[in-house]
Amino acid sequence: MSLVEFLDIQVRGDERGYLNVLEENGNVPFEVKRVYYLTSTKLGVSRGFHAHKELEQVAVCVSGQCRMLLSDGQTEESVLLDAPDKAVRIRKMIWHEMHDFSEDCVLLVLASDHYDEGDYIRNHDEFLRRASGVKIHPLADVHTDDIGHGSRIWQYVVVMSGARIGSDCNLCAHVLVEGDVVIGDRVTLKSGVFLWDGTRIEDDVFIGPNATFTNDPMPRSKVYPDAFQGIVVKQGASIGANATLLPGITIGKGAMVGAGAVVTKSVPDFAVVVGNPAKVIRTLSHD
């Protein structure tokens, strides 16, 4: 569906002039609760730069012209409003900007509700997250915009700048993700999981509560290695609650690490490991 939706404006006229009709719950597809208009616009000055969570609007240039940019977070469309019979609908969760105003522009806007600052989304990065279905709890502390569609980040989660999180992930409360961490799609991180620099988590991985990841084999306070030895967890693997993983190891595809295991070396694909130190007790079928 095109982002540019023109209303079917009724135009009636004769040699005396024209009447352009906008009717509430008619060609205007909502109850009109607020009307405002922009006047005395300046050349080179742009307006808008926001979206609304719930509000819908209709905009029409009753005089002059301007160009409107509409975006749903994935696609952008531009439309020139240059006639009183060209009214465009602005749905909720559509980012909109107005550019290229003529000096005689009068932009009339009909709105579905009264002014409410809480309904505005003025930060474009926040808009992109919302538009992609990303849900971030207001008590989370997230400093990356590289989060895939449909992921959920719950309260008291800390995600540092530079981290990459895929689509449809679930980061439960009290998770920490450092900046040099890459998380694939459909990953679950249960509460109390801290992922340190160098960690790489592939798609469809489950990491249980309080599983401990490490990245420095000889840790000393205020002494840092030249490079951290991150852990790699391959696609479809599962890490049990309270397991401890030593630096630099790889957990193979589809493998399972038992609860409380201490994993000191890499785990083969589809292996099940338990104990301290963790040992392979069987291999899973992977037809």
UniProtKB/TrEMBL annotation:
Residues 5-129 form the Sugar 3,4-ketoisomerase QdtA cupin domain. Keywords: Acyltransferase, Lipid A biosynthesis, Lipid biosynthesis, Lipid metabolism, Repeat, Transferase. Pfam families: FdtA, Hexapep, Hexapep_2. Belongs to the transferase hexapeptide repeat family. PANTHER family: ACETYLTRANSFERASE, ACYL-[ACYL-CARRIER-PROTEIN]--UDP-N-ACETYLGLUCOSAMINE O-ACYLTRANSFERASE. This is WxcM-like domain-containing protein.
